[in-house]
Design brief:
elongated; cytoplasm; three-stranded parallel sheet; binds zinc ion; 22 helices; 43% helix; 3 domains; 572 residues; Rossmann fold; mainly alpha; Arc Repressor Mutant, subunit A
Amino acid sequence: MAQTIEADWVSRFADEVIAEAERRAPGKPVVCASGLSPSGPIHLGNLREVMTPHLVADEIRRRGHAVRHLISWDDYDRFRKVPAGVAGVDESWAEHIGRPLTSVPAPAGSPHPNWAEHFKAAMTEALAELGVEYDGISQTEQYTTGAYRDQVLHAMKHRADIDAILAQYRTKKAPPKKSQKPVDEAELEAAEGSGAAAEDDGAVSAAGYFPYKPYCGGCGKDTTNVTAYDDETTDLTYTCAGCGFSETVRLTDFHRGKLVWKVDWPMRWAYEGVIFEPSGVDHSSPGSSFQVGQQMVGIFDGERPIGPMYAFVGISGMAKMSSSRGGVPTPADALKIMEAPLLRWLYARRRPNQSFKIAFDQEIQRLYDEWDKLEAKVADGTALPADVAAHSRAARTATAELPRTPRPLSYRTLASVVDVTAGAEDQTLRILSELDPAHPITSLDEVRPRLDRAESWISTYVPADQRTLVRDEPDKELLGSLDEQDQESLRLLADGLDTHWSLEGLTTLVYGVPKFQAGLPADAKPTPELKVAQRTFFALLYRLLVSRDTGPRLPTLLLAVGADRVRRLLGR
Ligand SMILES: [Zn+2]
């Protein structure tokens, strides 16, 4: 059983949530909640909506309390627009705008029965890999089976009270529903299609205000207006502005419609007894659905959840992604280039009100270095308590350890190796086995899945002009132009290769050659002059090996190229 952790923001929220749950519903499971809209690819930015309650729920579970993390799939929302850049989708999907997301066909070629299921599936898979334990609730299922029948009738009965609350905000411009604001312009278009449903609080018609909207019995769309409602019989009449269809139904046994969002959300807080549910910082504004919900929830005899506002999560390095992918990074995309514990760690170590970026660019290498350093500190007991807490939340949940790479070689090194080998497995294994000859890697499985993540990063996100291409033939012109001293440096390096053939040995060698030439001992401290000489020497090696001034770290590059080819390219 994992231990309770008491040093971080997660723990402080857990204290607060447990105390509140004891006050409201002693002895019942503590309910934490998230909401996701499968209106398109679910943006990586929206993962905070899940990770924040996940981490808190997990801490509550570590303490031995019964807890439920609900993920509400808002799949009964209307299909608002056809998102750009989704494979298997064309403009003909516009025909379905106004229908529930579960009534829209899935993209062509999808094995899933409808639009919502298609996009839920990718997220569900990512959440499983991240170790997120939750109860998924389909709002389509809830509404169409009549689970909310009493709540719908109650809302209709109290429509004047609901209208009065909404009226306080109607003149103010409504912010987006519940998702994050897009992080940069490139993502704007895509993010709009992935959960940022515009506000809808129901229209006031000649017949009055109604917080409930039927989906049309003729065309299936929500272009309907309630024209009459009888509180006694619950007979409801609507007409469809789209197809002209009209009918009168009895609301006690009619289940093809939903409460408008600003009523729907607080109704569910009360229905499920939600104690903790965060929302994006856009909810700090007056008129946001969280603010309105605090007032609205009283109508359903409930209380607002503890709901921290979380700051936006940005993405770095996505600009290079082709527009054919729609430019929408999803959690699955992140998990292709980093292991689940690393992604969990990004959320665990920052308080919800701190924004941060998820790196798809070179920064990912630094991030991995930082993670490896933390692992080492945790192992030898020198990490600070808050860092230990974040590490533990990243590496395991209350019930399971996340899978890890048996021999976590530096991501930077792995990336350099697959960069040079272009993924050829025999070469990759040869190089990795030579990194540390005393403890050689004997199978690539020892360095998986980290190796696969590094390979995927190199091949997907590193632009062609930053990839490493080892020369086939020596650069005769450059070799012919070298002075005596440069030639000697190459000879010293070439002669030392065989006796220094390991990551550590080659590191000593490449730094040692300029020292030797300067008449300094091998353990000499670097002086400014020596540093210049080393940089000049390294630049020469890069030019001769990869025709550029920089590249992967030289010892890794030398190992990757192989001793014979190095000697040939150095003209030795
Ligand atoms: Zn219709």
